[in-house]
Every structure is written in structure tokens, then in C-alpha cells.
Amino acid sequence: MSDARAFDVVIAGGGMAGAAVAAGLDGLGLSTLVVEPGLDGSKRLAGELIHPPGTTDLAELGLLGALEAVGGAPVRGFAVLADGQAHLLPYAPVVGMRPAGFAMEHGAIATTLRGTIARRPHVAVWHGARVVALDASAPDHVGVTVANDAGAVQLRARLLVGADGAASSVRRLAGIGARRRRISTMLGFVVPCGRLPHPGFGCVLLGGPAPALAYQIATDAVRVMFDLPDDTEGSDVSARGRAYLTALPEPLRTDVREAMDAQRGLVSASHSVEPDAVARGRVALVGDAAGCCHPLTATGLSVSTRDAIRLRDALRAEPDVPSAVRRYAAHRAGPQRTRVALAQALYAVFVARTPETRVLRTALLRYWKRSPRGRAVSMALLSTQEGRMSIMVREYAHVVRHALPTLLRRGAERRPLAARTRVALGLSVSTLRHAGGALRGLLS
What is the residue-wise DSSP string for 160-197? Predict the structure, then answer.
């Protein structure tokens, strides 16, 4: 590295979030430095599926073509398989939005995007480096210390962007607290020539101890991930993963079993992270650094591209950086609340550990089977196309309504009236909690 330099923007992290922000700010003519530690993406189990809002953003930022040129696979929607039935939730056509999602191995996404932004006229990429300190005491800039094996350098920037993941160092250095909760462990395999039950769809497979997720990442490869609840007693992770095989339909089950025999599998912890803020002074957080939830809904990459667009638009509208950062934070707050609430509710329903969530799972599947509109709105929420909490609460109420016949039948699940009343009360409390979230979203 050279002597101290000044940049308009320093971005910590060169994954999807950092690359998307760099591409957006390059369009504004801002000199941008991306600081990338250079972790081996092929050894990480991380985001790979991008919903249509994300592919639309990537096309606008001039990045989608580079990914498609390397490989990957289109995604048409989700298929939820449960009790021998498949519930297809295709992406609905939306004017101005690309019709399909996209999936690719995580390491290939990151490597391709870094190479693409490095060729942009206003972007520099420093590999093997990290942001290790910041000084926010000056009114007109933030001081940033970047270090690598050769030493450290002091930089000045009008804006520092934390795109460095759920365990963000920038978030910590900026003094922004976060509530971090471990949810489960994810175990993933690449299945060569895996035969999905519904090609082109990301498949959520129920029937095992917890949900499994499978989707195509190349013309000849499928990613399969098993969610392993951390409160389960038992043997090692790989052995626990085999308990899911019976929930997989053939011939995918045979393909996955062969992959498990040949591979060790990638393991990662699944966390929920809720920062106290996503903006402070001249520091902005994007992507997982600004909050993340269970990967079941696969929203992480699409949220990253949306954050890049929001931050670009805020800086375009507000020449004063602290004002632009506050504007960015305000515009992402509501959709993020909806995303987190949806992920929590859907994961609880799919795992179905309590009487009320078991009733809700049956009701949700019944709702999807009977209502084309319900499937469309559910997919809009899942894909981040729809971010209003009020819409999520309305859909949750529809699902609860589909649960009522089960509770009202005297012989329902052979439960006495008192037990069914407790389940109904649990559903009412859950509905009120989501309604409160919608009200807070409207008032904030």
C-alpha cells in the first residue's frame, strides 16, 4: 500500500454487498476503495440464491451479465414439498422486474463481482486487507485505518460502508451494538447432477427434523442444505444430517446420499443479528452487517443489492453525507422489519415444534393449495418484492383463518377442548404480535 490517501468512500468487504455498493457509487463518479480480506469463498456456506428484485438490481448496476457469463442457473420460484404434495410458488410477473432469480456457488459470485468492479474507472480493490480502526471525530471525514501483512495505512473518506457480514468489524468499531442469536447449524453439500423434483425451482423440503433447502447452482450441480437445530442431542453434524434423507424424494435422495458419502460437507452457524442502528455519522452498514436472519428464505443477497440501490439513491439526493446516510437508514427500516418477522415466523412454522405452529403449518399449506392469490403474495414477501409489514400481517391472518376449522372440529388431532383453546390462544397472541409490528412500522 502507498502513503495515506483520500477516497470519497471506503467499503469494508468485497462480497455481493460491497461489490454492489461500489458499482452503484461508481455511477455517481465517487472514488471508491473496496477493502477485501480475501477469504476462500469456496469453503464457506453462504448466500447463493438471488430473487428477481436482486437480479433486477444487479442488471441496473451492470453486474448481472458478468455472473451469467460465468455460469449459474435461473430460478423460477420456490416449491415447498410436504406430506407427499408439492406447493409451487412461482415468481409473479412484475412490470420493470426481471422474471427470474439466479443462483451460483458463493465463491464464484464473490470472485466474479470483485473482478468486475475492479475494472470500473472510479473503483480500486485492495485484496488481503482489513479495516482495523476508524476515527469519526472530524466533522468532514472519517479516518480509516487499513492493514495487511505489510503494515497499516491511514485513509480519509467522506463515507465508510460496512459490507463485512454478520460479524461486522465496522459495526463494532463504530460503536453500534447488536442483538445476536444463534438459531441453528447449516450443513451443505454440492450434489453433482442432482435431480430436483421440480427443476428450476428452489425446493424447501419438509418432513425431516427441520427444513432442507435445495436449488440448482449450475447446469450440472445442485446445492442441498440441511438445517440442524442446535438444541438437538445426538452425534456429530454429518451423522445428524443423514436423518434428513428419508424426507427427500427419489431420485434426489439417492443423489444426496452419494454426495454425503463422497464429501465432508460445509458447516456454518445460522444467526439472527439485529443491530441497534445501520447508520451513524459517516458510517453506513449494508447487507448482513445491517442485519440478517435465518437463510431459509434466501433473502440475504437480494437485500444486499437493494441496500446498494438505496444508498446510491440517498447519496444522489443528499449532497451532505450524514444526511444521506440517515435517509438510507430510514428507507430500509420498514422492509427489514418485515423480512426479519417473516423469516422468524416461517422458520417456526416449518420446524413446527409447538402445537400452534403445527396447526399453522397445516393451515399455510392448505392456504397455498386453495389460493392462487395467496401463493403470489407469499412469494412476493419471500422474494423481498413486497416489504410492507401490513401485507405480511394480512397474510398471516389469512393463514390463521385457514387454521380455525382444524381447531373447531371436536376430533381435531384428538385434542380435548382445553388443549385446542390453548392452541387458539397461542395463535391469537402471535397474530397480535405481528399486528403490533405493523403498527410500529406505520408510526415510525
Answer: EEE-S-TT-HHHHHTT--EEEEEEEEEEEEEEET---S
Query: Grid coordinates representing 345?
Result: 415466523
The CATH number of domain 180-270 is 3.30.70: yes
Beta bridge partner(s), residue 391: none
Cis peptide before 251 (omega within 30 of 0): yes
Residue-wise DSSP of 302-371? HHHHHHHHHHHHHHHH-SSHHHHHHHHHHHHHHHHHHHHHHHHHHHHHHH--SHHHHHHHHHHHHHHHH-
In whole angstroms, what is the distance from residue 71 CA to residue 108 CA? Answer: 9
Among residues 270, 274, 275, 273, which one has the least CA distance to residue 295? 270
Tell me which residue has cell 427500516. Answer: 333
CA 111 remoteness from chain centre: 19
Q: Report how far residue 363's alpha carbon sits from residue 403's, in angstroms, rounded to the nearest whole number.
A: 5
> pLDDT (tens digit, 9 = 90+) per residue, 321-358?
999 999 999 999 999 999 998 998 889 889 878 777 88
Q: What is the pLDDT of residues 98-109, one digit of tens each?
A: 999 999 999 999
Identify the architecture of domain 5-71+105-177+275-332 in CATH.
3-Layer(bba) Sandwich (3.50)
Strand 77-82, strand 130-135: pairing: unpaired
So where are the chain's domains?
5-71+105-177+275-332, 180-270, 352-443
**What is the SS3 assignment for 211?**
coil
- pTM, whole model, 2 decimals? 0.90
pLDDT tens profile 22-40: 999 999 999 999 999 987 7
Distance CA 131, CA 222 (A): 35
How many Å apart are CA 286 and CA 325, to the nearest integer? 11
Query: In which element (H, E) is residue 131 found?
Result: strand 130-135
